[in-house]
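Re: the request from the purification team.
They wanted to know what the chain is likely to look like in 3D before they choose a buffer screen. I agreed to run a prediction and write the result into the notebook, where they can find it.
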Amino acid sequence: MRKDVLTFLLFVVLAALVWYVHAMQSVRNTHVPVLIQYTGKPGAIGLKEPGLPDTVMIEVRDAGARLNAYHKNPLRLTIDLHSYIHGEKGTIHVPSDALRRSISDILQGTSKLIETSPDEIRCAYFTEKEKSVVLAFDGEVSPAAEYQITTAPTLSRSRIKLYGEDRALNAIDTVYTEHLILSDVYDTLDVRAALLAPHNTRLEADSVDLRVVTERFTERKFTVPLKIIGVPEGYHIRLFPKEVEVSVRVGISHFAQIQAEDIQAYCTYSPERTDKLDVDIHYKNPYITAAWTYPAVVEFILEQ
């Protein structure tokens, strides 16, 4: 019984194999998509709905193997609109014969084009007003542990052209990226950020490159003298201690560029404080990203 089942399954597999070989060799018709990309359209040219189609369906005749390849790897056609746009408004018209000829050129030599749908491309166009606006990043960036952001996130361009009617453009000065949350960033991160076109407007590009640069940080310690400011005339203040230890955070690449002279530690006298003052820090070196002292509070005596 088991032997009979195995024999039956073997014949089923052989039959399926014969059918598949026959299907791949037999000539037949099928419908496949052609993906269209448009070039040569000036930025200020707007298109009326429904716009230009991004896909054309075609009926093509060929052997099954070739048709199967068209399904796995869709055909791609580029249409240059430069020669179809004349004046500030009009109609883009790619006639049937031109469309069929362009599609036939990207088919394999054994394939025969039977029909296209639509059989022509037609779309009304008009000229919009344009305005250059500021491009800004919208989002949050947090570095990975033991890393710090060395510079603010930067975009590959600072301005972008915006198209639309005057009343829509007049109220817009800035265009933002999509809101991005980038977490645990380390080293250099490059991402593509989508742009958000304000209502009733159109952008010359739909995305922009964003770069975030981070590096590992370390700490460096200095002992610096403590200064006092705001002392009333005729009085003298003695601080305990007179020096404090300052720890600064700095990127590893700039560790050697931090000196004690870059840091000032001081207290501001207040008549409301009777025996202790807070220690504040001022630093002028741009590579210092954070600083703190020990102690953070010191004692003082006011002498006349």
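For the purification team: The chain has a mean pLDDT of 88.
Please add any questions underneath this entry.
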